[in-house]
Design brief:
The protein has 302 residues and is of the alpha/beta class. It has two domains: 175 residues, FAD/NAD(P)-binding domain (3-Layer(bba) Sandwich); 118 residues, 3-Layer(bba) Sandwich (FAD/NAD(P)-binding domain), CATH 3.50.50. Helices cover 23% and strands 27% of the residues. Strands 1, 2, 3, 4, 5, 6 and 17 form a seven-stranded mixed β-sheet that branches. Strands 8-15-9-10-11 form a five-stranded parallel β-sheet, with helices on one face. Strands 12-13-14 form a three-stranded antiparallel β-sheet, with no helix packed on it. Helix 1 runs parallel beside helix 6 and helix 4 runs parallel beside helix 5. The longest helix is centred in the last third of the chain and has 20 residues. The protein is elongated, with a radius of gyration of 21 Å.
Length: 302
């Protein structure tokens, strides 16, 4: 019997492990891929407090080493099922079933891709899925944002203060996001709307130099940009838990800022839970909160 099982070895999961181990709880962290989560693909992190600059890989490695040094057991096994047995939670992987007093789900989410050829190859070389993370690298340069929701609109507004020109590309002629933000963008001279259009090709090698855009009539144009920010949604990694934990309409775990789910003893931390801001620092905060709640749950006798 383990005190706390954590599903996911990203920033939220490993931070939770650190807090749990410092409280002398036994911990197993399960990870189906590699430690670090999405952040390992980030060339440089510049918005994490007290760290002026570090690559995503180096950051994740330091966190992994800190987590391991404290005695957390990290197993590279994909969790395929989670079962609530009251005071005991059962976590199943291809290697067997493990039991714990509490479980923290920290599986994160994946960026929804455009599905354009060479998209993966140009991530970090002109393509980004986070304007607040990477916008500073494109100061004074031409960039494009793809999407029609609030995230895309807010990304474009944020980038308008940094970049020389911002091209906002959307497949429809109206936006799903708030009209007030659309109005703010319309008032910016350096923001250009490219509507009823989609990105059909990426130009440049080894870095992005431009994008091919095709409108609904089949007309094609090439826009020269140094950066392309994709904001067409995210996919939370909660499929294995959908029958047990309530999810919102977007597929995120319905847990508030206390990271507590409606199922006693099961908590959610990081980008897979419902939240307004998904950043490295908020993932770390979630990990600390979820671990603290799990520790209290165990100490109070479940």
């Amino acid at each position: 019997m383990t005190d706390i099982i954590i599903i996911g070895a990203g920033t939220a999961g490993m931070t939770a492990a650190i807090y749990a181990r410092r409280a002398a709880k036994t911990v197993i962290v399960f990870e189906g891929m590699s430690y670090g989560g999405q952040i390992i693909n980030t060339p440089e992190i510049e918005n994490y407090p007290a760290i002026a600059g570090i690559s995503g890989f180096d950051y994740a490695t330091k966190l992994f080493e800190q987590c391991s040094a404290l005695g957390a057991e990290i197993r590279f096994e994909k969790v395929t099922a989670l079962e609530d047995k009251g005071a005991v939670k059962a976590v199943t992987t291809p290697n067997g079933t493990y039991e714990a007093k509490a479980v923290i789900i920290a599986t994160g989410s994946e960026n929804r891709k455009l599905g354009v050829e060479r998209e993966d190859a140009l991530v970090g070389k002109g393509i980004s899925y986070c304007a607040t993370c990477d916008g500073g690298f494109y100061r004074g340069k031409r960039v494009a944002v793809v999407g029609g929701g609030n995230t895309a609109l807010e990304d474009a507004l944020y980038l308008a203060d940094i970049a020389s020109d911002v091209y906002l590309i959307h497949r429809r002629d109206t936006f799903r996001g708030e009209q007030a933000t659309v109005d703010s963008l319309s008032a910016r001279e350096n923001v250009h709307f490219v509507l009823c259009s989609r990105v059909t090709a990426l130009v440049g090698d080894p870095r992005l130099e431009g994008i091919e855009v095709t409108d609904n009539e089949g007309n094609v144009q090439v826009i020269q940009v140094s950066g392309l920010f994709v904001a067409v949604g995210r996919i939370p990694n909660n499929r294995e838990f959908a029958q047990l934990i309530p999810l919102d309409e977007g597929g995120y775990v319905a847990a508030g800022e206390d990271c507590t789910t409606p199922v006693p003893g099961i908590f959610a931390a990081g980008d897979n839970r419902s939240k307004a801001v998904r950043q490295l620092v908020t993932a770390a905060a979630d990990g600390a909160v979820a671990a603290t709640q799990a520790i209290s749950y165990i100490n109070l006798g479940s």
